[in-house]
Amino acid sequence: MNILGFFQRLGRALQLPIAVLPVAALLLRFGQPDLLNVAFIAQAGGAIFDNLALIFAIGVASSWSKDSAGAAALAGAVGYFVLTKAMVTINPEINMGVLAGIITGLVGGAAYNRWSDINCRTS
């Protein structure tokens, strides 16, 4: 795959998590005191923004896998959890943000593509 093909595929993989952002922004705005003044709605939008890196890890891994598998999404989420905890042990002030989600999503999707066809032997 050439570099242009890689970035086209990456752009398609990023579309799924980016599609969540307008909904989160609307929820966050509608819940503000000067509009609807419903704290529940504002907290729902804030929860999406607070976990944006995890959403990117899940979305990119699922989109990067060859068949949009849920197992790839789980691999991306687990990879994100491992990366964030490992980075905190190295330096507690490191915060990779959404980049960590994108990286672990790519790794999780690629790992799924590589090893999804392996079957365990049955006795």
Automatic annotation (TrEMBL):
One GO CC term, this protein: plasma membrane
Highest taxon of source: Bacteria
Record has Manganese as a keyword: no
GO BP: N-acetylglucosamine transport; phosphoenolpyruvate-dependent sugar phosphotransferase system
Keywords for this protein: Cell membrane, Membrane, Phosphotransferase system, Sugar transport, Transferase, Transmembrane, Transmembrane helix, Transport
One GO molecular-function entry: protein-N(PI)-phosphohistidine-sugar phosphotransferase activity
EC number in record: 2.7.1.-
Transmembrane segments: 38-61, 68-88, 94-112
Membrane topology: Multi-pass membrane protein
InterPro entries in UniProt: PTS_EIIC (IPR003352), PTS_EIIC_1 (IPR013013), PTS_Glucose_EIICBA (IPR050429)
Compartment(s): Cell membrane
Principal location: membrane
Domain PTS EIIC type-1 per the UniProt entry, residue ranges: 1-123
Xref: PANTHER family: CYTOCHROME C-TYPE SYNTHESIS PROTEIN AND PTS TRANSMEMBRANE COMPONENT, PTS SYSTEM N-ACETYLGLUCOSAMINE-SPECIFIC EIICBA COMPONENT
Protein name per its UniProtKB record: N-acetylglucosamine-specific PTS system EIICBA components
GN (gene name): nagE_1
